[in-house]
Amino acid sequence: MAKKLIKNAETVITMDEQRRELKNCSILIEDKVIKAIGSNLDVSEDIDEVIDGAGMWVFPGLINTHHHFYQTLTRAILKVQNVELFSWLKNLYPLWRNLTADAVYTGTLIALGELLKTGCTTSVDHHYVFPKNASGKLIDEQIRAAHKIGARFHPCRGSMSLSEKDGGLPPDSVVQNDEEILKDSQRLIEEYHDPKPQSMCQIVLAPCSPFSVTPNLMKETAKLAREYGVQCHTHLAETEDENEFCLSKFGMRPLGLMESVGWLGEDIWFAHGVHFSDQELEVLKSTGTGVAHCPVSNQKLASGVARIPEMMEQGIKVGLAVDGSASNDSSDMIGELKAAFLLHRITSGIDAISCRQVLELSTRGSAKVLGRDDIGSLAVGKSADLFMVNKNRLEFAGCFDPVTALVTCGNDHRVDLTMVNGQIVVKDGKLLNIDENKLVDKANQVAKKLVGVES
């Protein structure tokens, strides 16, 4: 087995059970897992690679609990910069119906590349757009891209079955029927889902939202997922428009609708959760249902501010997420830490949230949301997922606390090194497994075709 040693790091922020922050610390990695951690390690084995930790801060890999990778190809489009969610979607669906397998593969590489370069080692992606003229195996293309770039991946087989003609929001060109959705969901689980520790791919079933799928699809999806022991994910309580839609069409609020179709429990998590009532927070807590917090997206689309400090205080499972690149325009995981930290201070007061609590959301919290106990902290037996930041950079001059510095300082969130499952995938701030310049050129070509811009 390959052995690596991170030697004499300035500080290792473990996020372990004791939340230890260790000075002059080394980490011994054997194959995919951490074998030892501490000062003055007795390393008698032959080491294949020594990584100099001098002047480095080491953190657990960040975990992104909600995204839409394909949206990296439709960023900063002028006409959707000043509209809220429903209008935003209506304007972008005509572009997304042009998605191809090549576009999905390229967009996945772009998004995962940005994430890896900002310390994210595990990411969810919620892909729900399956144009009628595109290959049916779009999730396969995402899995292929994640394998190539070296990221730990939780692909969500999304779906939309309720088109405009049936009272939903999406056009008919991007919806599928229940039978083909469920058949492909089963295929993906059987072909790709790996439940074992250190797994690099775990399938999630993820109908898009209450305004784009039928209650029957929600019920059947949850039934299928539980037969196979996989998790379920969807958007919920993102906007007041969604509340009004659900009340008008189903006679209940979004969370009540989820309860009626069997979508509560330890194996369920919702993206956004901005507009939950006091009673609904109690339901989330009592059922162990999780929430993916998307602070930048919620601000950009003026969706509102999720009650994250209250959720954390009540013990509700909460993870952090960047959300889609067309509603965030970035896959910057460290930037999301800062956004969450500042947002809740301005809305809930100076004691609402700390830098360490924000880091906890994006590590241990996100791991719990995804139902994983092998990632989210640096400890013996855990997956070797981590990132390293050189403290001797301009933006960290005068900094004394590494966690506060990570969250609040600097305007360049690129890390110096990222490791996933014991493999280095970012070194000196650069991706190792792909040519970034060629990828950017390819993405720009694909994006122009997708949006209809002439070269």
UniProtKB/TrEMBL annotation:
Matches recorded under InterPro entries: Amidohydro-rel, Metal-dep_hydrolase_composite, Metal_Hydrolase, MTA/SAH_deaminase
Sequence ranges assigned to domain Amidohydrolase-related in this UniProt record: 57-425
Any one GO MF annotation of this record: hydrolase activity, acting on carbon-nitrogen (but not peptide) bonds, in cyclic amidines
Entry keyword set: Hydrolase, Metal-binding, Zinc
PANTHER family to which the protein is assigned, alphabetical: AMIDOHYDROLASE-RELATED DOMAIN-CONTAINING PROTEIN (PTHR43794:SF11), AMINOHYDROLASE SSNA-RELATED (PTHR43794)
Database matches in NCBIfam families: PRK08203.1
Protein name: Cytosine/adenosine deaminase
Organism: Orenia metallireducens
